[in-house]
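Much of our argument rests on the idea that a fold can be written as discrete symbols. In the encoding step, the backbone of a single protein was reduced to a row of integers, each denoting a local shape. We regard such an encoding as a compact summary of how the chain folds. The record that follows shows the chain in one-letter code together with its fold in token form:
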Amino acid sequence: MRVPVDWLREYVAVPQDATGEDIAASLVRVGLEEEGLHSGGVTGPLVVGRVLTKEPEPQKNGKTVNWCTVDVGDANGAGEPQGIVCGAHNFEPGDLVAVILPGGVITTPHGPLEVSARKTYGHVSAGMICSERELGIGDDHDGILVLTRRFAGDDEALAALVPGADAIPLLGLDRETVEVNVTPDRGYCFSVRGVAREYSHATGAAFTDPALALAAEAPAATDGGFAVELADDAPIRGRDGCDRYVARVVRGIDVSAPTPRWMRTRLTEAGMRPISLPVDVTNYVMLGLGQPLHAFDLDTLEAPVVVRRARAGERITTLDDADRALDPGDLLITDRGGERPVAIAGVMGGAQTEVGPSTRDVLIEAAHFEAVTIARSARRHKLPSEASRRFERGVDPQLAAAAAQLAVDLLVEHGGGVADPHVTDVGSPPAPAPIRMALAFPGRVVGVEYPDDEVTRILTEIGCGVERDGDEVVVTPPSWRPDLTTAEDLVEEVARIHGYDRIPSIVPTPPGGAGLTHAQRVRRLVADTLAGQGLSEIWSAPFVGADRYVALGLDADAEVSRSVRLANPLSDEAPLMRTRLLATMVDALRRNVARGSRDVALFEVGLVVDLEGEQHRAPTEDVGVMPSPEVLAAIRAAVPRQPRHVAFLLAGDRDRAGWWGAGRRADVSDVLELVRALGDALALRVVTVADTAAPFHPGRCARVELADGTVVGHVGELHPKVVAALGLPARTVGGELDLDVLTAAAEATVQARTLVTFPLAQSDIALVVDEAVPAASVEAALRSGAGDILETVGLFDVYRGDQVGEGRKSLAYRLTFRAPDRTLTTDEVSALRDAAAASAGSAVGAVQRT
């Protein structure tokens, strides 16, 4: 919200010497964050100039510049025309423009820039002819600010346009505007009235509520007003979409009458573009008081106006000339007894009743609409507006008559209209619900002792009605504070007005606890282990589309049936929650490779969704209301299972090349090593078994299991078709494991073993098996036959060739034995090796190679 300082002074007694910076600092003390301070950002000689000559000069670079002479009166000390080079073309000799002379300073995005006489394009340019953006008063940067056009219709301003005259006050560049960030619960601050009230709270300055005098001036409702009916047949949570509607008629308006200069200036400073008198008046009232208004061309309306919900199939063309399909949840303003939609209530009016050049009579609408209804319509139609922005945060329901009266007064004064004596005011907004609070409650919550009188004073100051009842107070919030619904809300107000800076910073003593949970320790250990193996941890957005499952070679229909569909996705191309991490990790891999990283190793620990059955919508409750056990059960039932997975992807070289020799590309053995490292870190024995599973190459894929056969996940080399479809590096390898399964298995108590000091004994064995026999099966058979004193088994060589025959392979293992109570003899080791070989022979048909 941008608040012009001189406008703010009308509502609150701001000291004359207070700067915009001072005002912003005061507002910060009561919770209104400063967004910026705005002024022209121009110092030094900025004067009115009249263009005398304009000579276009084409340049070698294809650009055409204009060599101009400009009359700046006596402002340059010589009275001679000023020579200036200008690259814009939207002005002609005779036009009056804003000229900054050498020595002047303008503010640019890169900081202050001092204008000086300098040689450019073959001339000495002594100054600059300015655009709106260069002066900080608008967004137009493509053309020069022509003053005669800007002040067209403003005789007072045109009379001041004399060459050499100071343009800073003329353009309002000596005025300041304070911009504050308004939080969603403080909707009343989307107005100068609301910010003035907050400044009064911060400084104690006298606040004059402009709505009080206007409300007293506004006539009461009469029987002859324009007929309006409130007919909401689908209220939200028992609240009607419109609970008050004020309509005032002004006849005989000259819509071509110029908006007064002071109003245009204030609108511009507040960030709105002046358009026409009726539109400017409604915007001015909205910015000043916080009540959005809408002006209808009365001749295009047919009574009665009916406020109702949209019907299936209805459409409307809004003021932006867009034809929109209406939803039954939309609240509409209709005429002809409810037959024709003429506006989406609180969002945007319709084109059929728009005020235009031929309009003479207008109907001013000042209504109070339910916040949720307006917010949903604005988002549904992707149509945010200044009106919806205020309604969805809560507008004062008692403000409608005062706002309508101000609009009528301004149209009568500046548009030559006559106010109709008949007034429409229908509906009765519900009164704010009283809140009971113990006087000691703010002190208990904040940790600061607030005297009872101070609590009462603060609540009264912000507009609440306060009744003392022993050690408690019954507080009735003001109509402009719909956010005050609980005692905790009142506590926040007490702390805010008393001063956040007066709350001491005390670090609480942490209570004793058990530290991290088992699952948290496992997650940290897994992440540390993978990071220690040289992988980089990433986070990828968990949103995918069905086409991603197709690219991964998965059954897209099956994956989509297990996916949760988002009601409001960030992208229409990714409307689903992922069912596996690899579906989104590939984007990070592809991005890193595209940025020039040839050798990439990534991992992610995150949640996936595993929907079983149909997707259900969880019920909702009002904020601050404890859901019933039934609602909580329904919410939990609607949340699908979300297991935690860990996944990794490797591309490029795993061992880098250097002076020591060539590098080695990442392959399946590397992801198998990662699995073994995770198993060792968690004290789990994991087994890898050859398998076939998407998105992996069928001959280079392994299923990861626990010792009891529980499947943990799959690892391997991505299928060539997957690599091609996703644009990944060739021979990319990866895997995905169910971390929840690993976590549950790691909860078992680990039996510590006594440290054995006797020496190791090693024996190598080479076994010939069929090509189809997995090395893991051979290793399992060797372990089974070698006995308990076998310490490790390691595959160190694989041979295929004439010596073993076609369709056969030789696997060489190193067996390491250690006895806990003695040094093993050669005969004992040989016997253990032979027992292991016999076990492999009977289990997988292995033959010892000689």
